[in-house]
Automatic annotation (TrEMBL):
UniProt protein name: Nuclear pore complex protein NUP88
Keyword Protein transport: yes
GO cellular component: nuclear pore
Species annotation: Rhamnella rubrinervis
PANTHER family linked: NUCLEAR PORE COMPLEX PROTEIN NUP88, NUCLEOPORIN NUP84-RELATED
Pfam families documented for this protein: Nup88 (PF10168)
Keywords: Coiled coil, mRNA transport, Nuclear pore complex, Nucleus, Protein transport, Translocation, Transport
UniProt signal peptide: none
């Protein structure tokens, strides 16, 4: 089935400009009519908690919101930083995008592709893709958009019980969807060619049959595509329920587009560090990688001969005929010494892993694992990712009449037992191109301290800030938290910083918890916005259709905190002296100056006052008195008169404080009787509780010892067995029965839809081989079933012991 993706159609262009510009009114985004309505978020089809996000942003000027009540998509035009730098405005009225078919499932998540032409609607019971440019409707401001259903025969068949765990757009293709399902299969769908059958299928087998200790090690949870860094752009990271992380590399959608410089960089790296190595394993692995690169991107050889550069190149359909991809992992922590624990990443956190986030920050690849207990495990790849194949395990290819590859499927087995753990002190020659999975460098474990939940734990969804990649957001039942990374190993080393490892900073952004026990998250939508001027916002929508717009600071989040160690602490008395001005100067408080009397003759008493000598002496004494006492009195009078208003204010303030203190004392006296009554009541309750405690101590079984560490570990294994393994066993049996039923009921002579299947160098595969594979799968399942039956007996015995 072929679809035309030409966006330059007249009807589509009419739909884009159907809203006249003169009728548009710009208002704050939080006051938009679609958010201020009292409508609910629609009914829930499943009582189980699910991740919900009904908001999407195209990275430019359009915000999309799914209306669960009216079953339509709202397209809101927004302006960032106008008229104020921190404001977010929205256009009224908004466009309504209506699907051209009836959606028979509840939408829980929406996401837009790279160029903004399509958006998928995912739910528990369905997956559809809506193309955003359609034909105008008879209703005003409404567009009818073409909508298709993806993978309906595989995931949403009535006789099938395969659940979709995660759906993501591929970052280097506008037409490819990646889907991880509960049957441990990762599929890539090409929407431009076939929406029923996948283009690529990877059957994940993390452990060998019969060696798994519990089903959590074989139950996938989440996945993420890699970022724009070396082989990361060709990688898929898969998270399993026990916290282990695996890598598939290389995985490339047919027809995806990559930068020429990026592909040339990894091609030259394989030549430099692989083919010239003295280790034959490195030479073999790099030769496979080079042959795959040159076949997938044939322009590498052509342009190398011609000496020309291209801006981008397109991936061609190709797969090695005699090798399948290796499931690299589980990724383990890098360590220094001989006696360090080399446990798989995730052993330090309790519970089950629930979500995964890949983030590229400069030269560092950051992996974040969220656990249902509320912990975030943050790691960085300590080495580069390299492609690894299992030679001798050929894939299954689907080709046309001209032997052009249309699709592929392969079993990806883990080969972790063949490799040793990488140490930090190992030389480069012992790790490059030897097929070792990249180790993890533990950066931090962040405990979000979430409210008390049920046994299923909390659901945590993580997002990366669109402006500052060092910051990520964690959306959970208690609200939204911001986590900022202050240490990046490779980036700090390249920039010349020798800083020690700093812990991330965690800041609560939004709290939706009313108490210690929380209800399901009231947020049904979340998106991060940013503009080219360095401003960042987060937008959240509640179930009651209330829109929250919060501005996030970015410029000072990564600045270090400087502490002046040389400055001495200031005494409190000195501060009071500085703040309180002098009422009277110290000079006046010390009194008048003491001036010695002038030298006089000894016969001064016999001198008459009317004489010349007497008058001269009196004049000298009067002058001294005037200088010392009269002038001092004038100064005292002037300062007292000048500081009078200030003294009045001080006295009034003291009187006011005295009045407040008297009021507080009166209130305390009034409450004293009530406090005495409450104290008496508390004493009575204490006595009652003491009696109840004594009665409880006398009950049988109250003197049992607490569980030991081994017993607690066994109890946690039983909890994991109860929550995961039985469901995994039932889903595996159901999936195998459905496959066998489809195989036995499939028509044999439909020549119009028949495809040629080849395995390795053969041109076809007989049906007997398929039946044999199904029988072998059933035998493997029987082994797992026998192990689970033993564990069921252990559970029953443990329950009997606990009841006794």
């Amino acid at each position: 089935m072929k679809y035309n993706f030409d966006l330059h159609v007249t009807k589509m262009e009419q739909g884009r400009s159907s809203t006249p510009k003169d009728e548009v009114e710009w208002i704050p985004l939080g006051d938009h009519p679609i958010f201020t309505s009292a409508a609910g978020a629609g009914p829930e089809s499943s009582p189980a908690p699910v991740t919900r996000n009904l908001l999407a942003w195209d990275g430019a000027s359009r915000l999309y919101f799914w209306d669960s009540e009216n079953l339509c998509l709202h397209r809101i035009s927004i302006r960032l930083g106008e008229p104020e730098p921190t404001s977010v405005l929205a256009a009224v009225p908004s466009m309504v995008l209506q699907a051209d078919l009836q959606l028979d499932f509840v939408v829980h998540k929406i996401s837009i592709n790279r160029n903004g032409s399509a958006l998928f609607l995912a739910g528990t019971d369905g997956l559809s893709v809506m193309y955003l440019y359609g034909r105008a409707s008879s209703k005003q401001n409404t567009i009818i958009c073409r909508t298709i259903s993806v993978g309906s025969k595989i995931y949403f068949n009535s006789s099938n019980f395969i659940r979709v765990l995660q759906v993501l757009w591929h970052p280097y293709s506008d037409n490819h969807l990646g889907i991880l399902s509960s049957d441990s299969v990762f599929r890539l769908f090409d929407l431009s060619s076939d929406i029923i059958q996948p283009e690529q299928e990877y059957y994940l087998q993390p452990v060998e049959p019969g060696r798994c200790k519990n089903a959590t090690s074989i139950c996938p949870v989440d996945f993420s595509f890699g970022g724009d860094h070396l082989w990361d752009r060709f990688s898929v990271f898969v998270l399993f329920s026990d916290g282990s992380v695996y890598i598939l590399c290389p995985v490339v959608p047919f027809g995806s587009i990559y930068k020429w410089e990026s592909v040339m960089e990894i091609h030259s790296d394989a030549h430099t560090f692989g083919l010239k190595s003295a280790n034959p394993i490195a030479v073999s692995n790099s030769s496979l990688a080079i042959s795959w690169l040159e076949a997938t991107f044939p322009e590498l050889v052509q342009q190398a001969l011609e000496g020309a550069d291209l801006p981008s190149i397109r991936a061609r359909p190709y797969a090695l005929f005699d090798a399948s991809l290796s499931l690299q992992g589980p990724l383990k922590k890098v360590y220094h010494g001989e006696n360090e624990d080399v446990a798989v990443c995730g052993a330090e956190c309790g519970g089950c892993a629930v979500s995964f986030l890949y983030n590229i920050v400069s030269k560092d690849s950051i992996l974040v694992t969220a656990w249902n207990g509320g912990q975030l495990q943050i790691d960085a790849l300590a080495d580069e990712i390299q492609p690894v194949w299992n030679v001798g395990s050929p894939p299954r290819l689907c080709v046309d009449s001209c032997d052009h590859i249309l699709g592929l499927a392969m079993i990806c087995e883990s080969t972790c037992s063949n490799y040793s753990i990488v140490k930090l002190d190992q030389p480069l020659d012992n790790t490059v191109w030897l097929g070792h999975p990249p180790p993890l460098l533990r950066l931090a474990i962040v405990d979000l301290a979430l409210p008390i939940k049920s046994e299923s734990g909390s659901i945590i969804t993580m997002f990366v800030d669109t402006l500052m990649p060092e910051r990520m957001y964690a959306l959970h039942d208690g609200g939204i938290d911001s986590i900022v990374l202050h240490f990046l190993p490779f980036t700090s080393q390249i920039s010349g910083k020798n800083d020690t490892m700093k812990t991330p900073s965690v800041h609560p952004v939004l709290s939706t918890c009313q108490g210690e026990v929380s209800s399901p998250s009231p947020l049904c939508g979340f998106v991060s916005l940013s503009d080219s001027f360095g401003y960042s916002w987060i937008v959240g929508v509640t179930i009651s259709r209330e829109c929250l717009v919060l501005e996030m600071k970015t410029w000072d989040m990564l600045l270090p905190i400087h502490v002046d160690k040389d400055s001495k602490p200031t005494d409190l008395d000195e501060l009071k002296e500085r703040e309180m001005p002098d009422i009277i100067s110290k000079e006046l408080l010390s009194g008048p100056k003491v001036v010695l009397a002038p030298h006089t003759s000894p016969n001064l008493r016999s001198v008459s006052a009317d004489s010349i000598e007497g008058r001269s002496t009196l004049h000298q004494y009067f002058k001294l008195f005037h200088e010392n006492y009269v002038e001092y009195a004038h100064k005292v009078y002037f300062e007292i008169k000048h500081h009078g208003p200030h003294l009045k204010r001080i006295i009034d303030d003291q009187h006011a404080r005295l009045g407040v203190a008297q009021q507080k004392l009166s209130r305390v006296e009034e409450k004293q009787s009530k406090l005495e009554v409450r104290i008496d009541h508390a004493i009575q309750q204490h006595g009652i509780l003491k009696e109840r405690l004594q009665r409880l101590r006398n009950l049988p079984g109250a003197h049992k010892k607490p569980l030991s560490r081994a017993e607690r570990e066994f109890k946690s294994e039983l909890d994991q067995f109860r929550g995961v393994e039985l469901d995994a066993l039932r889903s595996s049996i159901t999936a195998l029965n459905a496959r066998l039923r489809r195989h036995t009921q499939s028509p044999k002579g439909n020549a119009s839809k028949q495809r040629v299947l080849i395995t390795g160098k053969n041109n076809y595969v007989q049906q007997d081989s398929q039946v044999f594979q199904l029988k072998s799968s059933l035998e493997k399942l029987s082994l797992v079933n026998s192990e689970n039956s033993k564990k069921v007996k252990l559970v029953e015995s443990a329950l009997k012991d606990s009841s006794v």
